[in-house]
Amino acid sequence: MPAQDQHHEIVGRSLEKAGWQVVDEQVYISIGDTPETRQRFFIDLHAQSSQGMVVLIEIKSLDRSLIHQLMELLGQYLVYRTALDFLEITLPLYVAVPHSVYLYGLGYGIGELILERYQVPVVTYDPVLEVIIEWIPQP
Question: What is the total count of domains within the chain?
Answer without folding.
Answer: 1
